[in-house]
UniProtKB/TrEMBL annotation:
Alphabetically ordered keywords of this record: Membrane, Transmembrane, Transmembrane helix
Transmembrane segments: 7-23, 43-65, 77-101, 121-140, 152-170, 176-193
Protein name listed in UniProt: DUF998 domain-containing protein
The organism's place on the tree of life at top rank: Bacteria
Species of provenance: Tessaracoccus lubricantis
Signal sequence, start to end: none
This protein's record includes keyword Transmembrane helix: yes
Amino acid sequence: MRIRPETSWLTASGVGFALFPMLRPWGDKAMTQEGMVAAFGSSWWLVAHLLGAGGFVALSVALALRARVERRGRAAAWFAAVGTALVLPFFGAETFALHAIALLEPGSTPALAEGVRGGAAALGTFALGLLCLAVAGDLIAATRRRASGLRWAGIPLALGLVGYLPQFFLPAEGRIAHGVLMLVGAVVLALAWRREAPVNESTPARHVPAGV
């Protein structure tokens, strides 16, 4: 069975989503200066957040590739792309600005971190991006329900995307569990895609290959 690029990108997105909370230092959640400096200044802070951002990018690429052969998935691809574009600036600030603050201004880290994280524009675009991703998740589930084969295969990933904003209010263990859900959802959907022959709905049925 030939491995399609969209399944590889989707699996990669799940890996990124899962490793982000697993590798992320959690010292900043203690809300102390020492904890924030230790977390933000760690190299693992950079690695984890880059993997998390990469998960959104890989998901958008996977859905865009899938939309080329499955017209019903185009709306999900568009919402995922817009959501990713809105989410990444906040991820970038979290990744690089907080890391630099911890290294250069350790005595002022809590106040400066609040400035980076608490701005209305930053939080607004981040929330709007996650809302778009939640819509993409719902569309993924809806598309799978109209597909052949594992019709429920889009539900775990959809639940993960819908729950991406609420999971920020969970403790570390809950956020790690959410990352695992994202990985499971991505793998299950990738396997469902892999089992299907890609069908371009604008192509007459006689041109569709019998199998792969």
